[in-house]
Amino acid sequence: xxxxxxxxxxxxxxxxxxxxxxxxxxxxxxxxxxxxxxxxxxxxxxxxxxxxxxxxxxxxxxxxxxxxxxxxxxxxxxxxxxxxxxxxxxxxxxxxxxxxxxxxxxxxxxxxxxxxxxxxxxxxxxxxxxxxxxxxxxxxxxxxxxxxxxxxxxxxxxxxxxxxxxxxxxxxxxxxxxxxxxxxxxxxxxxxxxxxxxxxxxxxxxxxxxxxxxxxxxxxxxxxxxxxxxxxxxxxxxxxxxxxxxxxxxxxxxxxxxxxxxxxxxxxxxxxxxxxxxxx
Length: 280
Prior knowledge:
280 residues, 9-stranded mixed beta sheet, 11 helices, globular
């Protein structure tokens, strides 16, 4: 399905019926990357799955921004289009950083929050160097093309855990990455890279919804980020998944499905308790 706005044709799909859960994919992915997880989840949830700007089948105007702010506006417009007042939000890596941005800027639209392998922005001293690195990587994509970039990106140690699922799965992930386009990925890096992202650590201290911050045991830097996030947001916890790296939901989908199901059940119970206390 397509939601057409002034500078974007946002591609998305909806699966299932029940309480809305919005899934935000990582860099070089698309909404397709969540289908395996959705199939493993219990019924009772309405999965809202967009292709973020610069990715998948979503099309942006040539001068459009790929930024956290623009993607947040897209999500709000999509929720409005679907009649969703509030949604659970789950985000991985870049999508996790977007989820944190949405939680900080539009907490009124969230029921709860889950991130995988994410942080809420780099400290000021690290941002400029990362911004230059992201811009250099965007230039590399534009110069060398999508095939060469996908080969390089897939070889990074960050994604080594995917190889444990075997060559056919690695080939499937590679094929998904190759469906993206040079201009879109370059735009995403320049507008939504970790260097471009405005840190939202301070705002998270005011986010009231239940949060679970997930990291793979082997993804050491993001384990530290998950702990910091849980120490920042008031109603939160962190979960370290054993024998997993950065892409927990893809490396160990059954384990992550259990984590997500437990989080959603907990958030539902918290919401029911809050609603009942209103009438006491």
